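Narrative summary of target 7.
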Amino acid sequence: MTRPTGRVLTLLELLQSGGTRTVAELADRLGVEGRTVRRYVAHLIDLDVPVESVRGRYGGYRLAPGYRLPPLMLSDDEALAVLLGLVAGRRSGLMTTGHTASETASAKIRRVLPQHVARRLDTLLESLAFTDQPGGFATPDAGVLLAIADAVRHRRPVSIRYTDRNARRSERTLHAYGIVAHSGRWYVTGTDPEIGEDRTFRLDRIADARTLPGSFEAPVDPDPAQRVVSGFATAEYRHQVTLRIHGTVEQIRAQLPPAVARLEEYDAPTADQGRATERWLRVEVRAERLDWLPPVLASLDRPFVIERPDELRALVMAHADRLASYARQA
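Modeled conformation, tokenized:
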């Protein structure tokens, strides 16, 4: 027979799965009478687990938010899912806490795993490979992230203290309407009411976020992710590159995604043509360096014309000469 302590922990696990559970349902799952369920609930309350009693026809018991995290009951599969999520988040750089917090959380879960589950996890991690290096990105402050998320949810202006890539510090107001995770970093996008333009800020460069009184109307269908990606393609960089490439939209996007390049019609398609039709498209790229573009254009294997800058034309010719010299080698 299951010991009372085991039944109390099972009751906690049932309540943690969410929703309100009736006394009859809990009694049936635990194999006890209703008065015993009430006694087990009293045990949890004595342990400072915030259990609420819900009255009425569909009443019963449910967990309420408490002042501290109650003992967390996870199944084997749930524990594996949490641990793999921590590993993936750390590798991708998308962690909102420091490395130490991630490591200690993983250690706490691994310490209580049954041996057979721990062995399965170790086997998986030993055989798991990643296509890139572990994320070395700066993590945003959790308090800043949560404050901005609250401002986004309730459409309230937020004041931020920001340091840009040139180490210039400023304080500004933002009408934030989306938080986006992209390429190992967190971003917030919204409208700067002082200039009336969309802006995107890296969350790890925000030192403080404070919600302001008032509210604002977000744009219709703002699509924060698309705005962040488009912002990368139009941001101010050292070089402004303009090309004409002959191909389909899909062919060009395979090597020059929206975060890198902006496409415009050069030869407008006719009524019976679509995205899959090869035609001349104008491509605009903004970049700090040009040396990565010649290999990309070579991998496209599509006719192209360099409109600007002349420096890129010289780099492409030098790249072509190197490829030709390699091909001539025995």
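The mean pLDDT is 82.
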